[in-house]
Write a structure and sequence with these properties.
There is one protein chain. By secondary structure, this protein is α+β, with helices and mostly antiparallel strands. Helices cover about 25% and strands about 30% of the residues. The chain is built from four helices and seven strands; from the N terminus they run βααβββαβαββ. It has helices at about 15-25, 35-40, 90-105, 120-125; strands at about 10, 45-55, 55-65, 70-80, 110-115, 130-135, 145-150. A seven-stranded mixed β-sheet has the order 1-2-3-4-5-7-6, sandwiched between helices. It is globular, with a radius of gyration of 15 Å.
């Protein structure tokens, strides 16, 4: 995983479970993953859990799902701690998610995002994701979502 001057990216390990759950609780008020779900994804061949960490601990995470027989990966979650925002961590995690999917030979990365999450919508659109569907009542609180997709080219960095 690439390194930055103030944080680095790596695959999450079981020892990261408590910090991942804390980040999840601090980042989302809806559709939160439980410790049990994280534990399952940390050991699953159909998921990649990556994180950004710095001297001050866990700064962000991204979860990507893979389905056997599919050419598409799904970015399930991307979270950045409030204290770490504005440091390029979301962008680095997004690039890492794309890289992991590309390394598996997948051709597309898709994701869903709350329509009212303007920072996330901007991040995805700025990095080549195109809106492909409107999803009504998508989240457990009834909020709508956008579905985005991006083709992953083998020669991309």
């Amino acid at each position: 995983m690439p390194r930055s001057t103030d944080f680095h990216l790596r695959r999450a390990r079981p020892a990261d479970l408590a910090a991942l759950v804390d980040l999840e609780l601090a980042s989302f008020a809806y559709d939160r993953m439980s410790a049990r779900q994280f534990r399952r994804h940390l050991s699953s061949p159909s998921a990649a859990v990556l994180l950004a960490e710095g001297d001050d601990g866990l700064l962000g995470s991204v979860i990507v799902f893979f389905r056997r027989g599919s050419t598409r990966a799904r970015l399930y979650s991307l979270a950045t701690s409030v204290a770490a925002r504005g440091r390029g961590i979301g962008k680095a995690l997004l690039a890492a998610a794309e890289r992991v999917a590309r390394e598996r030979g997948l051709r597309t990365l898709s994701l869903e995002v709350r329509r009212d999450n303007s920072a996330a919508v901007h991040l995805y659109e700025a990095h080549g994701y195109r809106r492909s569907a409107a999803l009504e009542n998508y989240y457990d609180d009834g909020a709508p979502a956008w579905r985005y997709e991006k083709p992953l080219q083998a020669d991309a960095s």
